[in-house]
Specification:
alpha+beta; 7-stranded mixed β-sheet; 5-stranded mixed β-sheet; globular; binds glycyl-adenosine-5'-phosphate
């Protein structure tokens, strides 16, 4: 993890929020490469969850949420973790983070045994909307994106004219005042969720729970997280939300242990029924064929953007041996991202920066490729160094413009370049003409 955290900072994936002021715990800023990685992940999720399906539509709800919504959903009363304070080092701890030695609970930071009794700590951030600072102006930063989907269910049903089963998808920020943020970005106080609420008839719920678990496993494999590093935990009855008839956690083997990436839950008709009761507005669905009116049930795959980004970086990180400029083997750090996820798809390098013809050709290639993909132009330093810099940020392809491109050695090679593969380090010669199509085919 130390190597990964250091690489993330050094190369501009992830920085601590407000770092120059000492940082704000549990909050992170994504740099130039981190934001590309996040976008690629979210775009791919949106593509397969919404664009490639006939039965899912999207929405984008507000973050500030009416307290009535979160009262009805149970968050105001019950969205809390048991908190314990260590009287020795003053740490605030989640009850499940205590360590037990010889049957005695201890503080994991200082080993202190003088601990307070557990008390419930609500994880929601409360704020005030408008000028009046009283009870009536309270609003919350949403702790999950799901509730705005439930609350807009009727509007979206009407405008989209979908029939059951169908889903509403959303990607957006969620906020939780986690007692103890930890493991780099894994548990943060501000994060993004990619959530789908898939509405169905009650008798379809269990089957769709299985279906969505499998779809989500396929998704992770398609972004480069192999099946053998993913684990499906069936959440036991006593740990499941009381309204859920079945929940799976999809877990990943992080360097700090096996941890949850995503939850896939069959939430029954709990949420819609609660909002129907509290708002007094019907959230029923009318099944024209069966001539039945009922509150739909829902299956929810809910994934975290930052956790998946962290898993992608952990999975991609590797070190191997590669020859340096003089042919001596050295350790190479390489992020083996799938091309579709990689922040930069292609590096373009003129062999020499002081040769206007080489530079001109290289810049021409950059302009041709840029409308289709992210490209990094680099003319500084030895070519081997430039390859290493791109390997370290996971750029899958490198294009070098050399004297053969100018036709100086062999006129038949005029307007060809070398195309280097990050993983095999093999190089092939391709024409500039063919390059955009070749790369387009491989950036998947
Ligand atoms: N709507 C259901 C829901 O919010 P959850 O299991 O509490 O369920 C879903 O959250 C996902 O959101 C988690 O699997 C995780 O990927 C992400 N997530 C939750 N809390 C997080 C946190 N504090 N930091 C980063 N990601 C978090």
């Amino acid at each position: 993890m130390e190597k990964i955290v250091s690489l993330c900072k050094r190369r501009g994936f992830i920085f601590q929020s407000s770092e120059i002021y000492g940082g704000l715990n549990g909050l992170w800023d994504y740099g130039p490469l981190g934001v590309e990685l996040k976008r690629n992940l979210k775009n791919y999720w949106w593509q397969v969850t919404v664009h490639e399906r006939d039965d899912v539509v999207g929405m984008d709800g507000s973050i500030l949420t009416h307290p009535a919504v979160l009262k009805a959903s149970g968050h105001v009363e019950g969205f809390s973790d048991p908190m314990i304070d260590c009287r020795t080092c003053k740490a605030h701890l989640r009850a499940d983070q205590l360590v037990e030695k010889k049957g005695v609970k201890q503080c994991p930071n200082c080993g202190g045994k003088d601990l307070t009794a557990p008390r419930q700590f609500n994880l929601m951030f409360e704020t005030q909307v408008g000028a009046a600072a009283d009870e009536s102006s309270i609003a919350y930063l949403r702790p999950e994106t799901a509730q705005s989907i439930f609350v807009q269910f009727k509007n979206i049903l009407e405008v989209s004219r979908k029939k059951l089963p169908f889903g509403i998808a959303q990607i957006g920020k969620a906020f939780r005042n986690e007692i103890n943020p930890r493991n780099f970005t894994f548990r943060s106080r501000e994060f993004e969720q990619m959530e789908l609420e898939y509405f169905c008839r009650p008798e379809q719920g269990m089957e769709l729970l299985e279906y969505w678990k499998e779809e989500r496993l396929k998704f992770y494999e398609n972004i480069g997280i192999p099946r053998n590093k993913l684990h499906v935990l069936t959440v036991p009855d006593d740990e499941r939300a009381f309204y859920s008839k079945g929940t799976y956690d999809i877990e990943y083997d992080f360097p700090f242990g096996r941890q949850e990436l995503e939850g896939v839950a069959y939430r029954t008709d709990y949420d819609l029924s609660q909002h129907q009761k509290a708002s007094g507005k019907s959230l029923e669905y009318f099944d024209e064929e069966a001539k039945q009116r009922f509150v739909p049930h829902v299956v929810e795959p809910s994934a975290g953007v930052e956790r998946t980004v962290l898993a992608l970086i952990c999975e991609a990180y590797s070190e191997d041996q590669a020859p340096d400029e003089k042919g001596k083997m050295e350790t190479r750090i390489v992020l083996r991202f799938r091309p579709r996820i990689a922040p930069i798809k292609c590096g373009v390098f003129p062999l020499l920066k002081n040769n206007p013809q080489l530079v001109g050709k290289a810049k021409e290639i950059v302009s041709r490729l840029r409308p289709q993909m992210t490209v990094f132009y680099d003319e500084s330093g030895a070519i081997g160094r430039r390859y290493r810099r791109q390997d370290e940020i996971g750029t899958p392809f490198g294009v070098t413009v050399d004297f053969e491109t100018l036709g100086e050695k062999d006129p038949a090679l005029r307007d060809t370049v070398t195309l280097r593969d990050r993983d095999s380090m093999k190089q092939e010669r391709v024409t500039i003409q063919d390059l955009p199509a070749i790369l387009r085919d491989r950036v998947v």
